[in-house]
Structure formats: C-alpha cells, structure tokens
Specification:
- Strand 12 and strand 13 form a beta hairpin.
- The protein contains 18 helices and 21 strands.
- It has a 7-stranded mixed beta sheet. Strands 16-15-14-17-18-20-19 form a 7-stranded mixed beta sheet. The protein has a 3-stranded antiparallel beta sheet with strand order 4-6-5.
- Among the domains are: about 200 residues, Rossmann fold; about 190 residues, 3-Layer(aba) Sandwich (Rossmann fold).
C-alpha cells in the first residue's frame, strides 16, 4: 500500500509539473505575440511623414524608380503657397496654405499594374474605395528639365551627336526607364505670372532665376534686371532703337502704306529663327501678325523660357539636321536677325528648309553684317548667299542698310528655265513636303503646287475661309464648316463653366495648348480673346497645314514623348481624345499626365474631353498630381457631330505648391 501511495504522489507531481510548464509556455507565447502585434500596430500608426515625397538620389535611374505606391493622400513635403495680395484670380479663388499629410491610419496598398490608376474594392459597408499612386517631388535640379532636349541625359546615355550640325540641340528622348516619375517643383519664391499685356514688358525674376542675358546682352537691350523683375525694353542685336521701329522699317522696305508689314492681312504667319527673347514676335502682335519664335536651348540661356513667360508664342527648336515640325507652305515671312546661322554652307540645306516652309511669294528678311559690311569675310558670305538664293529662284525685294528681303517665286517658271544640273535640284515628286516629324532635311527645292499666295484670303477672313488644301485631305467644305461651328459652341460652353465657377478672369489665361487640334476649330473660337494657341497635331495626321492656312500656328508632336518646352509655360491645356489615342498606341497614360503637369503652370487649367472610362481613369490621379477637381458635378455633353456616346468632360486646376525644404 505504501508503494502504491508513493507512486500516486509521483504521478501527481508529474501532472502538476506538466501543467506548470504548459502554463509558463502559454504565458510566454502570450507575451511574445502581444509584443509583436503591438509593434505592428505602432508601425501601422506611425508611418514617417514625408517619406518618399522627394527624390534624394541624383541620377535618372534611381529617380525613375522613386515612384512610391500609397493610399490616396497628398504628400506632406509639399504645401500650397498663399499669395492672395498679388496673384489671386479676383474671382473668389483663394489660395490657403495647407500642409499635405499622409493618412496615418492606412497601410500602403500594392498595385497589380504599374500603369493602372488605382484598385477599386468595397469595404464592409459596400462603399467603393479607390487607392492610387502618389508621386514624389523631383529634386530641385530638375525644375527646368526638358526631357527630350536635356544635354546631361545625352551625356549619361553616351549619345554620339555631331555638335557641328547642332544635333545636340535636337530632340533625343530618353528611353522609358530613364523617364522621370515625379512632379517637377517650381523654383524658390515662384509667383503666379504677371498677366498679359503687362507681361510683354516685365516678368517675375524669381520665376526664371537667370541673369545671363541681362548682363551679356546689356548693350543690345534684350533684358534688364530691376528689383524683383526682369524687364524687356524691346531691343535686339539688330534693332537697338526697338523692335517696333525695326518692324516698321521692314514694312517701309516692302513699300507698304503706313509701313504696315502685314500688307493688309497678306502677311499673317511668321517664322522668327534665332528669336532671342522674342521681342520681334511681341511687337508683331499689334499688327495682327503671329510669329512662331524659335530658338534652341543654347548659350543664350533660357531665351524661350523668358519668351513664354512673357506670353509670346514660341517654342524650342533648331535648324540642324531634321526638318522643323511644320508642314510646307506654312509661313508668309521668315526672319533672321543676326541669328548666327551659316545659311550658305552644307549645300544650303538650312535655307532650303526655310524655302520648304515659305508659301509661294513669301519673304525672307535677313539682317546680318554680311548685308552691309565691307570686310573680306562678309563680302565672301554675301557672294555665297546671293549665288544660293539666285539658284533657288529667289529675287531681291528690297535691301537697305543691314537688312535684305528676298522673295520666293509664285510660280514654277524660274525652276523650269534653270540650266540643267543647277544646284540645288528640285526634290523628287515622291517626297512628301508636309511630312516633318523626326525626318532629315533635304538638299533640294520643294516644288511649287497649284496653290499660291493668292489662294488664301487675307487675315482675318482666312480664319474661317475653307483652305484650298482641304480637298487634298478629302475633307469637304461642309465638314470643315460644321467643325468650326461645333468648336465655337464647345468653347463657349467651356468658358461659361469656367467663368461661372470663378476659375478664370480677365487675362488670367494667356498661353493655351490644344493637344489635339484637328482643324484648328478650338483656336478659331478664341479669336476674340487675349490668348494665343499652340495647335498640336499628331504626325500621323496632315491637318496642321489647314491650321496654318487659317492663319494660326502649331506643331506636329507625338504625345508618347515629352513636348519641346520648359516647365510651367502654359496656362491652359485642352486634351480632346488625347488619352485614348496614347493608350491605344500602347503608351503610358501616367507618363502623359506627368508631362502635362510639367508643362502647365501652377493654377493652370486642364480640360480633358474623352471617353467616360478614360476620364474616370484620369480622375483617379488628380490628388496624386495635386490637381483640384473644383466641380464635382458632371458637365453637360452637348449633342454635336463630333461627340460620341460615352464622352465626358473633366475640368481641373493645378495647385500652387512648394517643396517644404525651400520654404
């Protein structure tokens, strides 16, 4: 019995020991998991503020990979800048300084597709939750980036470019893996631009913090720095007395009454090559002449950026190896004032490109030392130029002092009477003179067609008169007239909505881009506004020639690539079916949105007109882009011949913000 009791006691002690060990292990596990979940909860509720909202690495590769995927909340490192006293829109638009914090209560969701605007899911209440990306802010060194004209990128990618023929100033777009995936920041102290027409003569120096032109061209009166503004006296290398007097003298040379260079509306579109800060183009505007002011991003730092800040039509470009992105017979006059171009060299290829762009009977005004100096080098240049233009059948319309004006022939008679073997030859009839996107220039003369100077009405009648080139495109006059009417109705509706909702005021919009201009109807509808429009046409279409025949200006461009302009240069972007087109060609909608954000000014307006599904997709990006969707109501779609069943309109405004580190 004693042994039995001892065995029972041992058994009880073993059971008790086992229970104690089990309880101890469970207690330890409980403590461990309690600590683990507590730390996870703390991590969840203490996401670092500002993480990922600015790019720290210096190269393009890491910058491209800096895109973070988060819940849809604004970044904390960007704040809206309050500037009510000087720059409110006087229509109830008030900028409130705000800190944009991330939501501290949501984890970062994962996105399945890098191009998707967001994932839609339903919570327990059945409410749709949309999560989308946020974009970091690019480093400040990219505040003036022009991706396809960026020479540091050319060097990084080891592009072998011929500097002697200006290849390094032509477009060379980075591959997709080198594209910036971040928002371009404004420079420190950026202010809403001064409104037109005051902006013609003065801009905020802080918006373009460069003084090279003011000091290096001080004797030529290009630009002056006075206080917090850059001033533009209207001078130039060859017009010390002002662009207005220089222009009047050109009109006098053409023997026009009152020295009217427009020749009663016959000269409407002008190409100004090597335009400087575009004062020539600025002082053409009162004559109802519109110039495409063109210059590269060369040693004359930021000249086109200043031109656009002034509100003057202009774009970056160079006469190098490729055709300029305009169709043939686009300009009534081309102008070069000390533009540092050797026209007679390389078999005259650059002057032949100008010839392609001039209308029959068009003029080329050249102000150069070679026109009036008597030293040996200038005499040789003058002899070479006169020989070249004679072989091109140009005639001297006028010559006075430093300036000569040549005229292109109206007919082909001179070409037919040239001696056999005369250079430059005529281009082959199979060459398309209107194809001008990423194509090499030709050392031949573009043949004339049946359309000459007299085929176009003078301005302003030519704005709505059917172009004689419509029939070449298979467009009947009735369709053209309908298109004009439809866009008048649409633009009136846009302006009505913007005005009634306090989004525009007098002269608050100046630089406008129509990203898919078609026949130029959008621009034509704005003829009575103090605005100018860059009409952009896809290279696959040929309607840009109609735009120019209307007396408007524009360019070919493929929206799968970045546009040739500086950041913050347009007040309004109009995108009609642009997103659907880009998406259908396998290009990135997200990249296009980032490009539009680069181009549009702070407080600028974006109008998207596209399919409902595409507009909904774009809408998911608005907070990530810091664009305000000021109207929550859907806009009415007016029934017209250009509308399709599920079309939708989105109007938004870009916020004004600054990275925290520069405030």
């Amino acid at each position: 019995m004693r042994g039995s009791r001892n065995n029972g006691a041992v058994h009880k002690r073993r059971v008790f020991f086992t229970v104690c060990v089990t309880v101890l292990m469970l207690s330890m596990l409980s403590i461990y998991y309690s600590s683990f979940f507590s730390s996870r909860i703390q991590q969840k509720h203490s996401i670092p503020r500002g993480g990922g909202s600015s790019v720290e690495n210096n190269d393009w590769d890491s910058t491209s990979k800096a895109l973070t995927i988060r819940s849809m909340k604004p970044d904390s490192e960007d704040v809206a800048v309050e500037d009510d006293e000087k720059h409110d829109l006087a229509v109830g638009l008030s900028l409130k300084e705000e800190r944009l914090d991330r939501d501290e209560n949501e984890e970062r969701p994962e996105m399945d597709e890098p191009d998707a605007a967001g994932d839609e899911s339903k919570d327990d209440g059945g409410i749709e939750e949309v999560t989308t990306k946020t974009f970091p802010v690019c480093e400040s060194k990219y505040s003036e980036i022009i991706p396809c004209l960026d020479q540091p990128t050319q060097k990084k990618l080891k592009m072998k470019l011929n500097h002697s023929v200006m290849e390094h100033f032509e477009r060379h777009c980075p591959p997709s893996e080198h594209r910036l995936k971040c928002l371009i920041p404004p420079p420190p102290n950026y202010q809403v631009p001064i409104r037109w027409p005051a902006s013609r003569d003065e801009v905020w120096q802080a918006n373009i913090p460069h003084s090279f032109l003011a000091y290096n061209k001080s004797d030529q009166h290009w630009m002056e720095i006075r206080g917090d503004k850059a001033l533009f006296p209207g001078g130039g290398t060859h017009f010390h007395d002002g662009a207005d007097k220089y222009i009047a003298n050109l009109g006098k040379m053409l023997r026009e009454e009152d020295s009217d260079l427009s020749r009663k509306g016959k000269i409407r579109t002008v190409l100004d090559v090597g335009c400087g800060v575009a004062s020539f183009g600025a002082f053409l505007l009162p004559l109802n002449i519109i110039a495409m002011s063109l210059a590269p991003n060369d040693v004359h730092q930021n000249q086109i950026q200043f031109a656009l800040e002034r509100g003057i039509p202009s774009m970056l470009g160079v006469l190098g190896t490729k055709r300029l992105p305009y169709p043939s017979k686009s300009f009534d006059l081309a102008h070069c004032s000390r533009c540092r171009i050797d026209w007679h060299k390389r078999e005259g290829i650059l002057l032949l490109e100008v010839d392609r762009l001039l209308r029959p009977g068009g003029y080329f005004a050249w102000s150069s030392p070679a026109a009036y100096r008597e030293n040996e080098a200038d005499r040789q240049e003058w002899a070479a130029m006169t020989t070249l233009v004679k072989n091109m059948c140009w005639t001297e319309a006028a010559k006075e002092g430093q300036t000569v004006i040549w005229q292109k022939p109206l007919t082909s008679q001179c070409y037919e009477e040239r001696e056999p073997g005369t250079h430059p030859p005529l281009c082959s009839s199979v060459e398309d003179p209107d194809a001008a996107w990423d194509l090499p220039m030709k050392t031949c003369i573009t043949p004339l067609t049946k359309y000459n100077e007299d085929s176009l009405e003078p301005w302003p009648q030519r704005l709505n008169a059917p172009s004689p080139r419509l029939q070449d495109l298979g467009i009947v006059e009735k369709s053209y007239e309908t298109d004009t009417y439809v866009w008048q109705e649409r633009v009136q509706y846009y302006w009505k909505q913007l005005s009634e909702n306090g989004q525009i005021a007098a002269n608050s919009v100046r630089n406008i881009m129509d990203m898919n201009a078609h026949l130029g109807g959008f621009a034509a509808a704005l003829k009575d506004e103090e605005v100018w429009i860059m009409n952009v046409i896809s290279p696959s279409l040929k309607t840009l020639e109609i735009v120019y025949d209307r007396g408007l200006i524009g360019t070919y461009h493929d929206w799968c690539e970045s546009f040739s302009t500086y950041p913050r240069t347009y007040d309004l972007l109009h995108a009609w079916n642009v997103f659907s087109d880009v998406d259908s060609r396998g290009c990135s909608v997200e990249d296009l949105l980032l490009e539009m954000d680069r181009v549009i000014r702070p407080l600028g307006i974006v109008i998207v007109r596209d399919s409902a599904s595409m507009v909904n997709r774009v809408t998911k990006y608005l907070k990530a882009l810091r664009w305000d969707h000021w109207s929550k109501d859907e806009f009415e779609i007016l029934e017209d011949s250009l509308a399709h069943g599920d079309e939708k309109i989105l109007m938004v405004r870009k916020r004004q913000w600054q990275p925290v580190e520069i405030l």
